[in-house]
Amino acid sequence: xxxxxxxxxxxxxxxxxxxxxxxxxxxxxxxxxxxxxxxxxxxxxxxxxxxxxxxxxxxxxxxxxxxxxxxxxxxxxxxxxxxxxxxxxxxxxxxxxxxxxxxxxxxxxxxxxxxxxxxxxxxxxxxxxxxxxxxxxxxxxxxxxxxxxxxxxxxxxxxxxxxxxxxxxxxxxxxxxxxxxxxxxxxxxxxxxxxxxxxxxxxxxxxxxxxxxxxxxxxxxxxxxxxxxxxxxx
Amino acid sequence: xxxxxxxxxxxxxxxxxxxxxxxxxxxxxxxxxxxxxxxxxxxxxxxxxxxxxxxxxxxxxxxxxxxxxxxxxxxxxxxxxxxxxxxxxxxxxxxxxxxxxxxxxxxxxxxxxxxxxxxxxxxxxxxxxxxxxxxxxxxxxxxxxxxxxxxxxxxxxxxxxxxxxxxxxxxxxxxxxxxxxxxxxxxxxxxxxxxxxxxxxxxxxxxxxxxxxxxxxxxxxxxxxxxxxxxxxx
Lengths: 234, 234
Hints:
The structure is a homodimer.
Chain A: E1 2-7, H1 12-26, E2 35-40, E3 53-54, H2 55-63, H3 67-83, E4 93-94, H4 98-109, H5 113-126, H6 134-144, H7 148-156, H8 162-175, E5 179-180, E6 182-185, E7 189-192, H9 197-209, E8 214-215, E9 223-225, E10 228-230
Parallel strand pairs in A: 1-2
Antiparallel strand pairs in A: 1-6, 3-4, 6-7, 9-10
Helix pairs in contact in A: 1-9, 2-3, 4-5, 4-7, 5-6, 6-7
């Protein structure tokens, strides 16, 4: 089985939802047969690349509320994060995540995508680190297992993995995702939002119970197996 | 949409079926939205790594037939290959394909998997090249776009990408594939064998008509979208 998770590093419910999904996966008996792939989604693709806008200011401006009201909204999200054992700081920076997604595609090629996503979430939400700084990003990527020279090369070339990020985003739209996190099991079932762990476990059970793919009846065709290669019509 | 194709470089119907699938894909209106991933399958995992056994001798021994009968079987496959414009030689060598599959996983990480698979099929079926020779393999991989030093490193380390090959093979069994080529569309539909192009086109149409994934109704959950992040129960 294969679970694809569309998310953004700037998305609090993606951070929390990842922990809840992993709890649901841990409770799923066939967890060893599940492959997880992270897909790119930008909540604010128009955000400037380098920024020092505090998230609380961005929220107050976006919703037209006071700074105190923005803090109250963040406090409710922080409470949900604490429920999953996750640190959550509201003094973090709001910025563009395109480069972070390009790095996650590089990390995928090295088999360390999940580790890098965890590290980016932690750097953003638990440590409020400035992710617009290429030196900070490179340090995080290397600690997650990405070769240093490749991380630097990808960060220096704005087109590296850019098509992969955009392809993920197109695919999210085609699948009907309007927000994140968005979880897709075997391209069959979709789950929107940071649901409780039990919802994920049940969805995995359901997809597993559906069994193998439906083999379309078609013409007798050439196929090779244990017994050799069958030639149709002979 | 995503099509996964399980195949083996030693499998004539995989060689022919790839061309037929590509003809069906070319006739599918939404072909731009289709991602193709090649998966590993070994028809003869017990074959010795280095071998100079001619395929015709292997076939005669496997089926307990005369060399002339083996040639007649091969002639029917060659005819099917010619129907797709593919060269096909029966004087090729039978050997182990595990290293070839490991290389295809490396090529996937570089975005040139399809080019390498085409090159390996051509080298085996059209040119009868000795694929057990690491120098030959490296040359083919490099021509397909794999960095030379990485190809050499992977070929020198028998564990490099070995788990990925085995994972593909486990997954084929889980999906119910007993032979190759085996095509899986969006983990929903399976197609066995080198079917005519029209069968592939129709299967792609059917999967496309099914539309987006089924979103499972679940609890109201935290989700972030264009309008910001919704906090459940607030």
